[in-house]
Amino acid sequence: MKILRLFKAGRMRAALGFGAVWFLLATPAYGATGSDDTESRGAAQAVSNLEKAANQAYNQGDYAAAADQYRALIQAQPEHAVAYRNLARSYFWQAIYPEAVAYYDLYLRLAPDAADLGQVQSERRLAASRAGTQVWRIPTSQAQALTALHSALEDGLGLSAGEGGAWGIYQTLLRTGYAQPDLAELKRRLVRKLLNEFVGLLVPDADQPAPRLELADWTLQLERLDAARALSDDPGFLSVIERRTPLAKTAIALLTGRFEQAHSLSLVAIEQNPDMPFIRWFQVRALLELTRYAEALSALGELEEYARSANPKVLEYSAIFRASILQRMGRAEEAAAIYLNLLDGPSSAGRGLASPGGSGVQ
Amino acid sequence: MKPTQYSNMIDPMPNKPNFRLYFASLALIASLILPTLSASAQSGPAADTQAEQVILWTFIAPDTPADSIEKIRRGLREALPNKGARHLFGEKALQEYIAQNTASPAQCLIGLETCVSPQTLAFDALGLALVIHVEITRADAQWVANGRWVDRRGEVAGRASLKALSARDLAFELAGEIFDSTASVSVLSEPAGAQVEIDGDPVGTTPLTYRLALGEHRYQLKMDHFKTVTGTFTLLADTAERIEHELEAQSGALVLLNTPPGAQLIIDGEPRGPADHRVELAAGSYEIEVRAKGFDTHHETLEVLQGQAIQRRVQMDETHPLLRDIAADAIVQNRYIARLSYDHSFQSATFQDTRAAVGSTRFSFRSFRDAGSSPPPNHLVSPNGLRLDFSYHWENVGLILLSASYLSTALEFDALLDSSAVNEPIEVRIERMRRLQLRPLQLRYRVFYKNLAIFAEVGTGINIDWIRASGDLLDAPVSLSNSEAFWALGIGTSYYFTPNIFALFRYSAQAYIDDGPGTEHVLSLGAGIALPNIFGVEPEPPETLE
Fold this sequence. Notes:
The complex is a heterodimer.
Chain A: H1 2-26, H2 29-36, H3 38-59, H4 63-76, H5 81-93, H6 97-110, H7 117-131, H8 140-155, H9 165-175, H10 182-200, H11 215-231, H12 235-255, H13 259-272, H14 279-289, H15 293-310, H16 315-328, H17 332-344
Chain B: H1 17-40, E1 53-60, H2 68-79, E2 85-89, H3 91-100, H4 118-126, E3 128-139, E4 142-150, E5 156-164, H5 167-181, E6 182-190, E7 195-198, E8 201-205, E9 208-213, E10 215-222, E11 229-235, E12 240-246, E13 252-257, E14 264-267, E15 270-274, E16 279-281, E17 284-291, E18 298-304, E19 309-313, H6 328-332, E20 336-349, E21 355-358, E22 361-368, E23 379-381, E24 384-393, E25 397-419, E26 426-449, E27 452-470, E28 478-496, E29 501-512, E30 520-531
Parallel strand pairs in B: 1-2, 1-3, 6-12, 13-19
Antiparallel strand pairs in B: 3-4, 4-5, 6-9, 7-8, 7-10, 10-11, 13-16, 14-15, 14-17, 17-18, 20-23, 20-24, 20-30, 21-22, 22-25, 24-25, 25-26, 26-27, 27-28, 28-29, 29-30
Helix pairs in contact in B: 2-5
């Protein structure tokens, strides 16, 4: 039997050679994403290291450790076909045949044209015959977590407080050891959901100057981006994440009293997110807190210029802000004029409150 | 309750003598306590419910002497002795007030709360409770004041048009009119920060205090994740209304649809009654279980957010007493199948072409014999026995490599045999029949439903019959035989107890290629065993990977 194994191992080496070539050709995302972005390169390196460690454990006969690492590899790269085959083999040598059959099947599904197809099919048959009556079924814990994840992706939150929501359920699913190709699609859906949720919460209500978010909400927003970053190796998604991150960081810095940092982050956020004009309110507020009133007025002017064409309804709010700044600058007359104009309200339009002399406001 | 300075007024009409006397006395008291009040008025805008109310007055006086506004102000200072309120008369007073105070920037501008109207924000920034706009004119030697007062909502809370002979009288009448038609209301909630709407208009967040027109008002307190509170209050002259609510946290809810009758809901292991009832749940993650008699138990993990009502359609499969959930995958792993069945065959036999040779004498079946003039061409025979077959199966298609059956039956048929020894037919009795059938190759197709495999088989075979005949003219019974080829078509079902062991029922029709023998109908009832790879020739995985 040993001779037979060695013989087959030799065949396997040849097949692996072809398999490796196939893998490199079939998954250009590895190289492409790695060259584009440092973070992606780091992630690809981590995946590569994981695979090396898994192979090493396998070659040393530590099949349980190898299986753990191949599972982790699949969770990181759910479309990495070879990991399924090797996980199946790790199970095979542990005499866990039903799982081996299931993972051979996944490999054959992911790599229907693999060079080692014949060999793997034979291995699968042997594993199936040894499995006898036992058939691998998704464990209840995995099935429950998977159902909950689908449900959360459908109509729940991507991320809720305390690492809940779809993200939390996804982490639970990984902890159950779930390693299947559909993780790739689940990850994509989750990233999309997290980003949509992030952006959706940044849309101010009608006639409101800024989205209604408190510090805890902003922290959660940043966690959404961090979660999306951890899940995604897609350059498009990563670019969006990087672009949106300064928005949340600006708000958090402002709400935690780091006004200088809030101001510098707001500049980046404004530049990278022209579709999120609300962040200018945060910039003005940071400058106000830094007592850089002249700059605050200037930033407010830019905000008003933008609002005049995009959302004139918020101009009255900016007037309040302006009055507040002027008040701090000791320009009480200008501040009073703004307040009086607002307090006169729509019911007295045209009364000319600011008119001089006996006919003016006194 | 905080009574206003008008609490002793019985008649609200401002131009009555007792009203004037009242304000005159108040003015005297005010002059005594004014320094203290002025000092306290230096504080910032009202931030809490106990703070002093600030009221802004604006005046315009076209076509009146230059000092007319100052006269009115003086009169108002006398009429309104700053008790519980600070009055800012005109823009200059406002400027001084602004210079002395620093308004906190509105938190709503950075999304920390919902922005109310800009007018309300201006009220908040200055800590104002009311803004009173007064236009003064002269008509027929009388002073005329057209006033309107605006509350925190930016709404005009009231209007008045008053006349008096002197500016001072006009000021007193104006003060009486306005402060008799508005009153203060404080709204508080626990937790604070609830959005307050009065008469449908958002006016700010709790805690807040401001003045409103007298009369009945509706209010609503709204806060995320808490139940909305609504109510009404009536503002009376000389009173201060206080509204205070402890907000009740909103719970989530779960509604299950499509549950079978009598289904019970279990949440985190605790029975919660009928599954089709709405269940209130606090925010959190729950393991839910729905159990119903005759159905497979449904398990699910649900996350409920505060205030979220979840509707979930539940699909539960009926549990069948016989059909068990053995995965077809488990069955198809067992590719080698052996079946043994009891076969019972029915055929209208003619025994045509059955022959025998005993020494040099040859016998052949001639016909059946009967008492009547025309003997029947055939007789029903129903031999029974065992069938054994071996097959190799892929998932759906299988190959029956060999199928052999041996059947026999006792007969009592009178017949005639031709013999080479005599010219006349010999009368015999057919006593027994034995039948061997070999089906060397048959094709089989099966589909699975739970632990049932429904199959169809088709193939050819060869049938060998032996019939034993005895008669007076025969020294010993003669065994005649014949072989015929046939087509076989069978349908049936296998019921798997386990992926290895099953029972089977089959009906097959075997049509003989020769026209003579009639079609044979065979019913089979048996059992089988399915085995995985028993030859061990499949290759193992490599022990090292590159």
